[in-house]
Write a structure and sequence with these properties.
It is globular, with a radius of gyration of 18 Å. The chain has one domain: NAD(P)-binding Rossmann-like Domain (Rossmann fold, 3-Layer(aba) Sandwich). Helix 4 links the parallel strand 4 and strand 5. The protein is of the alpha/beta class and 252 residues long. Helix 1 packs across helix 6 and helix 3 runs parallel beside helix 4. Bound molecules: NADP nicotinamide-adenine-dinucleotide phosphate (NAP). NADP nicotinamide-adenine-dinucleotide phosphate binds next to helix 1 and strand 4.
Length: 252
């Protein structure tokens, strides 16, 4: 089938395009660097012409809440409108586990606006909510460190490897949209997580042995996040690659 991956040049998108091509699909990466701008709409209609499925793995560098929300809402509205016009039959969106429980995080409120725009977009959809990527963890810990000490929040994570995530995303592409009644009553959203739940301070000790790590209640990125808000619920699809596996392979 023809699959357009918007954000297909990013860290998730690049691996997903490779995986889809390896499975025999015609996968097209759409991003500004390939001539498609999901905000201005430039190149979007042409990119989606003839597509069966569109996968949204876009991200924004906007830090401010209003700008991030505008990016996610407008990009989803524009992708859905172009997908409707092109007769695309499945809109897949990559989102994050725990958006409601951790909605003290401004980025998560922006992702909720993105999900709402996909749900209202008029194209059958699957929202894939994933946990934190292995690649995200060291930057998170470093961002919380000052003078050789990282004071981390007392939260549990269930990190996923990008290889597992892109395998599951490709499986979703090959499945019926979860929003349709025949898909088994998931209500349009599926969760994806790694094989183990780990406290953030333990992750910190493993990935940043040079830092003094504490877990003394400092909020997560300045927001309050309940201890298990970012852990997947029952029924999540689980990857198999552990943090130790990823460290051994990538030197992370
Ligand atoms: N990091 C985590 O732990 C985590 C966990 C769960 C879910 N997620 C979600 O995963 C998604 C993908 O993240 P990622 O880290 O793979 O993204 P990324 O590497 O930052 O890639 C972002 C992609 O979006 C494209 N893009 C940005 N603005 C665009 C525009 N105006 N028009 C067209 N393309 C545009 C970029 O290409 P150009 O710059 O060339 O346009 C790039 O291909 C995000 O939505 C994030 O919320 C992340």
């Amino acid at each position: 089938m023809v699959v357009v991956v918007v954000g297909g040049t990013g860290q998730t998108g690049t691996l997903l395009v490779e995986e889809l091509r390896a499975r025999g699909h015609e996968a097209v990466a759409a991003a500004r660097s390939t001539g498609v701008d999901v905000i201005s709409g430039g190149g979007l209609e042409q990119a989606l012409a003839g597509a069966d499925v569109v996968v949204d793995v876009l991200n924004t560098t906007e830090q401010e809440e209003a700008a991030a929300t505008a990016f996610f809402r407008e990009s989803s509205e524009n992708v859905a409108a172009a997908a409707r016009a092109a007769g695309v039959r499945h809109h897949v969106l990559l989102s994050i586990v725990g958006l409601e429980a951790a909605s003290d995080l401004a980025y998560y409120r922006a992702k909720l606006a993105q999900e709402a725009a996909v749900k209202a977009g008029g194209v059958p959809y699957t929202i894939v909510r994933a946990t934190q990527f292995h690649t995200f963890l060291a930057p998170l810990i470093r961002a919380n460190s000052v003078d050789g000490e990282a004071r981390l929040a007392p939260v549990n994570l269930q990190p996923i490897d990008l290889a597992d995530l892109t395998t599951i995303l490709a499986d979703v592409v090959e499945s019926e949209p979860a929003s349709t009644a025949s898909a088994g009553g998931t209500g349009g959203t599926v969760e994806v997580a790694g094989p183990e739940v780990l406290p953030l301070d333990e992750i910190g000790r493993r990935l940043a042995p040079d830092l003094k790590i504490t877990s003394d209640g400092k909020p997560f990125f300045g927001a309050n996040v309940p201890v298990n808000a970012l852990v997947a619920g029952p029924g999540a699809r689980l990857g198999t690659i552990t943090l130790a596996d990823w460290q051994a392979a990538d030197g992370g």
